[in-house]
Amino acid sequence: MTGEGIPALIEAVQECPPQKISEVGIAHETDRLRAKIKILYLEHIMTAGMPLMVHMPGGREAEAEIYRTTPRILREGDVAVITLHFVRPISVFTKMKLIFRLKNYTIGFGTVL
User: Fold this and answer.
1) Quick one: pLDDT at residue 9?
2) Superfamily classification of domain 3-17+29-112
């Protein structure tokens, strides 16, 4: 995401309702998860097999690959459900917020389902 995309990212994050402790589930270790994602920026289409860097609360990040997308092909502006497969197991909880990066760009954000 370039400098002109920052207002769009801020607006998108502000659309997310704040998390309440009572809404957050118990963390568990997994190497796969489903997330609802909003695509903010893409140079090309997004589909299964694409690598991503996923940023999580607490400054954590993990390498992942898109295992499945619904719909199958994603474009800039789409909202979709994706399944990610991580290189190493990560600790996640329901409704955890995620930021997705590809190369040096923030391409979207989402929440764990």
Assistant:
1) 64
2) Translation factors (2.40.30.10)
